[in-house]
Amino acid sequence: MKKLLTILFFGLSITIVDAQKLYLMQYSSFCENDTDDGFRTIKERINRIYKHDNLWRIEITVNKGCGKKLYPDLKILNDTLYINTIPIRQQEIFLENGDSFLEVLEELDCLCAHFVKMDISIDTIKNLKINGQNLPITNEMYETYPIRYYTYKTDTTGYEDKYGLRQGFIVLEKKGYIMKQYFKDNKLVKCEIFTSDGKLVEKGVDCFETWKKIEKK
Q1: Whether 171 contacts 160, CB under 8 Å
Q2: Domain ranges within the chain, ordered by starting residue
């Protein structure tokens, strides 16, 4: 009998949770940035979430096709709010004089970081899934990675920062020659080639042709 009561209580709790009334009060979406700047990739994320009474303000960034606005399709299940961002193909625009027209939105062949803001009326949200993912709540705009260091003979010469961008210099050594490649934000800004006894062979921005000749010796 005790086991039966537990099952009945569990079923009742699900019914109560699923009975939450969910209303999308207002929303907006726009293309904020390209999904990368050539070096760094925009992080899909929850920018901000806060509650006032039963009104929740949720702001997210998701990477989708360019040229379209996104509509947040909402579903609540067991205190988890599921938000799927659906591209809007067309929308009707109403003017102050009472006229209206249909705007057709054409998706472009590119990706865009869309900023989506929505006000939702609901009692309780314990978990949040965006397009099936558990996105982090963060102010960090770009994807981050573990920092990696470059060393030469136990000395640290450079590193890959949290965005994966090379900084400092990298040392390559082959057949009695040493090449140093200097990087700033992943861009090669200078290179130097020396003999093993320290004599400068070449200095410039790109030393690869000379280095290839050394490798073929």
Answers
A1: no
A2: 20-130, 148-216
- pTM, entire model: 0.73
Please write the tens of the pLDDT for every residue from 171-214: 999 999 999 999 999 999 999 999 989 899 999 998 888 988 88
Beta strands 187-195 and 127-130, pairing class? unpaired
Q: What are phi and psi of 14, to 5 degrees?
A: -65, -40
| Tens digits of residue pLDDT in 92-109 | 777 788 887 777 777 777
Residue 111 tokens read as: 């990706």
Rounded to an integer, what distance in angstroms lies between the CA atom of residue 43 and that of residue 28? 19
What is the Cα–Cα distance from 186 to 27, expressed in whole angstroms? 38
